[in-house]
Structures are given as C-alpha cells and as structure tokens.
Amino acid sequence: xxxxxxxxxxxxxxxxxxxxxxxxYIHEVNPNDIYEGLNDKQILKNKFIFQIYQLENLDSINIDxxxxxxKVYVLARFWNSKIIKIGSIPLTNGLKIALAQDSYxxxxxxxxxxxxxxxxxxxxxxxxxxxxxxxxxxxxxKADPIDYKSAQIDTLYHRAFKSENSLIxxxxxxxxxxxxxxxxxGLGFMFLGFFxxxxxVIIAFFGVNxxxxxxADTHMQTQRQQPTN
Length: 229
Fold this sequence. Notes:
Elements: E1 3-8, E2 10-11, H1 15-29, H2 40-45, E3 51-53, E4 62-67, E5 71-77, E6 84-90, H3 93-100, E7 103-119, E8 125-142, H4 148-160, H5 164-191, H6 195-225
Antiparallel strand pairs: 1-8, 2-6, 3-7, 4-5, 5-6, 7-8
Helix pairs in contact: 5-6
C-alpha cells in the first residue's frame, strides 16, 4: 500500500465533536479498537507499552473529497452520522499529481486521549490519563495491482471450471462418491460385528451426503421453474 502523499488537515470546529461521536460509536461496535482493548492492569503487565492512544485509526470513517481551484475539502461520515467538513488542505501540485493517478484517500489520526505509564513517588508504575490535540492527516494511496498469486489462482480456477455448472457437477459427483463409500464402509463395520459404529458411519457419510444432494436438486429445480422477467 504505497502512500503517494500525506498532508495534515486544517481542522474545522466540527472535527472534535465528530471524533468524539466516532469514539462513542467504536465503543459500541468494536471496543477492542479503544486503547487496543487493554485496561490499565493489562497495560502495566505489558512492559513494552509506555504510552497508548485511545484511537489509533479512522478505518470506519467514509470520506469524500471536494476539490476546488485552490483547496481540497475533506467530507467525512460514519454509519448514520451526518456528513461534516472535517478539514481542508491547499491543492498543491504534488497533491494534484497524486489525485490524478489511480488512487484512493484515507484519514490518519494522532493525538487525543492517551494513557501513559509513569513511576510514582513510591517507585511504582502507574497509568495516568492525558490528552493532546488531535491531528488528522489526509493520505492518498496508490491503488495496488491485483496480487500475482491471486491472479494465477483465478486463472487456474477458470481453466478447471469453464462454468458454474461444471463446479456444481464436480461437487455433486464427490458427494455421490462419499455417500457410496460411507454406505459400503458402514456395511463393512456391521459385517464385522461393529453395528453401532457402522450405523454412525452410514449416517455421517451416506445420510448427510444423500440429504445434501436431495436439497441441491430440489433447489436447482425450483430455480429452473421460477419465471424470468
């Protein structure tokens, strides 16, 4: 994920209340994103943490850019919040070049509430709460090409399965094989005197696969009978 350009925003007066509402929203939907899900005791136990911020990212915020002749205004919202103008930056030549490429914008955040580990007058570590002003930056990322391995897998898939029907046919044939295999194996166990084991094998292999095939055939017939608009 290549960052083409990153600039600090000149924040509006609506930005701080917006971030506070966003933090409340994250508290509800994903509390582990607040202080990385750690409480004071857990922070003290981790000897590598000396300072941790309440909020590390703005991943759940959707943004849009409003570009004028000399400025870029950043509009932001999350879930059911109102769209606000969170900040702006001058439209420099570097920013013009970055936005003209195949790219996408994100927001990054620093500052805000944070917890800090200090040594008190008794020589013991303790966690204190502090605050520093928010700083929000606009980052423009270059859109990465499709991963080569993923493309190769996709190519092999399309070579092996020319259509969705060929994949369905293969799946059904495999289920038929396991159904017959389970039936024969279960009967073999019964023949050897392991009746209960044989019955369980028949249910697990023959019963489940046969039932799945029956459901699949019924579903396919229903789809064929549905009228097309």
